[in-house]
Task: inverse folding
């Protein structure tokens, strides 16, 4: 039976909308996107955001996130590092930059040039930064100075709880870290690198409402790469949220545009089913035949599945444009089916005879009035300058005309001749025979 191959390929339809396809063929941006796909070696930045991070010493949240010594082996940052080892499935290119790791190292007594304080308890910068050092205006190098000779490290080992700061120590020193400039004496300064990674509103209570850990996606060249990378990041975040009992979600700059494609299949199926159901009800009301309505519904469903299979063959993606076209194609495809079915129902004779009558009476009208007129109108779109009109309108509607013609004028008459509904006109009842002479005599 015709249509088996396209219907089998309908499940391979990919969601998305290529950016180049909405541009004119001679646009300079075509070369720009081609060069991005060819030469780009890193993908968009990816942020894993942790909500309501409890940094108090009585909590285990710190060890559930960090990746330095004494952190949990299944911590968030350790798991991100493991995911980066299989970028082909995780779409994560490298381990995440962690403000928490750098902050804990910055506070540790081993980092002599990082967390320092004056005798009065105020922040003391590294020796190669003002006011501890005066910079040479010519060379930009640090000149010898003893301005900060009275600085000491913030903590001794005995001041920390197993290498971790207390709630008060964390709260007091975090602003110092975020204002510290990286330098040769201390490269772990957070100013600039992590200034936008934390939301410190109300953090004095021991809760950081939101903090982000930045990594990068692998190079994303196709629409399927963008969709799959977002799906993989969400699946990973959901798994880590369950395992760590924390609220974690991913974010990247392109997610707002591609989130629709995570549910485009559901949207397409729902709209197609609603459209088919509505047509079934209308056909049942008009024809008063459940059998005929079911046959029309079956043929329309086959046309839609064949359309989706042809889209997969031609590389047409599933998006808002193609979903609208699929729904509209159902309304157009009705014209290929309902006229033949109605002519079949009002015919007389057996099923094969009525199928021949329907094809002879309505076939020419369907071919000339529906097929040829739509074919002429669709061909004009082939000469559009924008590729989106050629792909999503010329190719899709041309496929609809051809598939609708094959189903309406070839497949449907055969189906009706085999299992079509009974005729609408009931056979006239035979008149009763006049009484015989013997009965009259009786």
Result:
């Amino acid at each position: 039976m015709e249509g088996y191959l396209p219907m089998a390929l309908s499940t391979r339809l990919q969601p998305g909308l290529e950016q180049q396809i909405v541009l004119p063929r001679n646009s300079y941006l075509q070369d720009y996107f081609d060069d991005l796909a060819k030469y780009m070696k890193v993908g968009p930045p990816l942020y894993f955001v942790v909500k309501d991070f409890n940094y108090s010493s009585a909590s285990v949240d710190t060890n559930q996130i960090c990746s330095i010594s004494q952190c949990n082996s299944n911590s968030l940052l350790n798991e991100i590092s493991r995911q980066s080892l299989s970028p082909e499935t995780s779409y994560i290119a490298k381990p995440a930059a962690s403000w928490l790791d750098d902050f804990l190292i910055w506070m540790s007594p081993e980092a002599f040039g990082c967390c320092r304080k004056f005798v009065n308890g105020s922040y003391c910068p590294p020796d190669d930064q003002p006011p501890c050092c005066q910079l040479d205006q010519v060379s930009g190098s640090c000149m010898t100075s003893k301005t900060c000779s009275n600085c000491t490290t913030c903590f001794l080992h005995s001041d920390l709880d197993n290498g971790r700061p207390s709630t008060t120590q964390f709260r007091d020193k975090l602003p110092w870290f975020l204002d510290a400039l990286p330098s040769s004496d201390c490269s772990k300064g957070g100013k600039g690198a992590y200034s936008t990674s934390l939301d410190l509103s109300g953090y004095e209570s021991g809760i950081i409402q939101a903090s982000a850990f930045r990594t990068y996606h692998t190079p994303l060249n196709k629409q399927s790469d963008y969709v799959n990378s977002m799906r993989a990041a969400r699946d990973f975040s959901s798994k880590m949220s369950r395992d760590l009992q924390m609220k974690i979600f991913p974010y990247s700059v392109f997610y707002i545009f591609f989130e629709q494609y995570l549910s485009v299949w559901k949207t397409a199926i729902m709209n197609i089913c609603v459209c088919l159901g509505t047509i079934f009800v209308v056909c049942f009301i008009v024809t008063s035949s459940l059998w005929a309505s079911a046959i029309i519904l079956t043929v329309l469903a086959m046309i839609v599945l064949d359309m989706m299979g042809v889209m997969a063959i031609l590389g047409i993606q599933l998006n808002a444009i193609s979903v609208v076209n699929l729904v509209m194609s159902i309304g157009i495809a009705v014209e290929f089916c309902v006229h033949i079915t109605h002519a079949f129902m009002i015919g007389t004779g057996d099923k094969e005879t009525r199928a021949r009558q329907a094809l002879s009476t309505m076939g020419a009208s369907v071919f000339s009035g529906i097929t040829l007129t739509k074919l002429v109108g669709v061909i004009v779109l082939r000469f559009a300058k924008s590729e989106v009109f050629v792909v999503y309108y010329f190719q899709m509607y041309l496929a609809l005309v051809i598939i609708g013609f094959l189903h309406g004028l070839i497949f449907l008459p055969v189906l009706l001749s085999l299992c079509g509904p009974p005729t609408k006109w009931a056979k006239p009842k035979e008149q009763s025979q006049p009484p015989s002479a013997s009965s009259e005599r009786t």
Remarks:
- The beta strands are 45-54, 116-117, 123-124, 134-135, 142-143, 152-153, 198-199, 207-216, 247-252.
- The chain has two domains: 4-13+261-419, 44-259.
- The first helix runs from residue 4 to 9.
